[in-house]
Sequence to fold (653 residues):
Amino acid sequence: MCRSWARVLSAPARRCMCRAAHLSNLAPKFYTRRLSFADAKVSFGSLFDGLGINGIGRSPLRLSNYGLVTILNFHYTVNYGFCTLSRSADEILLSSTQSNDVINNLEDSNFGFDDVAPTNGSQIKDRNKNLVEFTKVDVNLLPTVILVGRPNVGKSALFNRLIRRREALVYNTPDDHVTRDFREGIAKLGDLRFRVLDSAGLEMAATSGSILDRTADMTANVLARSQFAIFMIDVRAGLHPMDLEVGKWLRRHAPGITPILVMNKSESLDDGAGLLAAAAGEAYELGFGDPIAISAETGFGMAELYEALRPLLEDHMLQILVDKGSQENSTCDVDEESKLPLQLAIVGRPNVGKSTLLNTLLQENRVLVGPEAGLTRDSVRAQFQFQGRTIYLIDTAGWLQRTKQEKGPASLSVMQSRKSIMRAHVIALVLDAEEIAKARSSMKHAEVVIARRAVEEGRGLVVIVNKMDLLRGRKNSDLYKKVMEVVPKEIQTVIPQITGIPVVFISALEGRGRTSVMHQVIDTYEKWCSRLSTARLNRWLCKVMSRHSWKDQAAQPKIKYFTQVKARPPTFVAFMGGKTQLSITDLRFLTRSLKEDFDLGGIPIRIMQRSVPKKKGGIGNMKSSSSAGRSVERISSDKRSVVTSENIDLITT
Fold:
């Protein structure tokens, strides 16, 4: 029996954390029994790496530290060493006499080796080992965590922090809602990997049919497909009545999910004055357990969030992996040819049907749609499969000319739309058929800017004319035919840099033209990635140069050979002989011939020139000089009788 292995000290709280004095370097045995004395509970066998008030704050400790700590006005549970002690507020800051009494009570307790279950060190070591390596798990099997809360509590900021990129728009607008569509990304929190969803702010007082009411319905649908939730509140504003409404909403729509309560914007309250602890006491009214104080902007409290998420995600992943293993044993794997993913950006002016087109392609209500102009603010990225190919769709905000006076979310949306064009492989420019019929013009200035920017960035371009259902009927039959005939010609005139731009006429609201759009997009992408062999290009070059009518044959540029050096977009190099260069007219002729002969319409083609300098010495001179060198070596040889020029003269005479 051993009763003198523990010592108890107390110390004042400092910044919501406590430290116990180091007492002994002797490693105790590990126990798994809980017993109580007085008002304190002693738990043996709790392995930990830090301590904090109800999960707020954490201080790393050594395994040789053991202690009993109490804090004013808080039910404070301390995980210290391998001993967990819980004390009430009336046992605050024990004096040395009181501490000795507690120690005596602990030492006089009747327990020994017969009453406990010893644990060896290897078992304790296995507890710290990760049960699941999330970095090696398939992305499609990762659990989903959704961020919920009232507007302007920092959900988008935490989303950007977790995915380690600035994807979601973040702007301080207390009277407005920046996020309207939910975004999805892969979170990287330490060694944890999971899907994280950024949802719109919930406001229960929204009128039926309004934007806020529609966003709440969309959040409810996404919440039903999520496994975990992080409920965020603003600690600076305190417990808001809307937070209580959101808590009731969560219990009603997700009864099987216990949210993790997070107090955001806590960096300014972590000053040791007790403000953070007081806010934590208020957060208990929500009934979701211990709150975690974090700061999405500065990264404060991410370690505590990691500790709260890790056991939940591990248990879920273990169950998923077990179920998947049983399914794999009963089914056989079929090897399919993997295809490269395609990134398609849907761009255009506001209210032309971009979001409706994305929902039609996905065949689900992925983004918010409505008659309001400028409804989409974030560039939403969605993934789906089409004919065995992974396609990433990017729904951008309506393209507007950015002015110096314009600030706020609209200005950020324009910048994000421009970045989406640079990241995409193919650009789908959406036009409004009704506006084309009224204005008697196919493209406006903003749409021409989008098309030219796509060409400058070297992206494939597909023009989609939406809302063709509004031109149907007996009265609009002639107008319908005229739009289909005139639009492709006008587009080719406005954008002469690319020939053969494909134009697709659809009705996204009715779902017509979905297959045509995807086939045209994939065809443009395959052209954009195409490669031509050098032998084929040089055979083509001989035919092209012969059929071209040159003004002066002497001034005809001499192209030694023609080759492709890059794809995406196709880039060619013409190696010129001497100092001659191809003129702009010649480059246009070659570009047009490439698109016509190799069917490369709808994508930009780049042709570069390189000069091949002439060598000073000819080939004949080089051979004679090398043979002369060899003859000199033969003359100096002692092993052979070499016939010299003098011997030749003697023989001939």
About this structure: The longest strand covers residues 559-566. The radius of gyration is 37 Å. The longest helix spans residues 302-330. The chain has 17 helices and 19 strands.
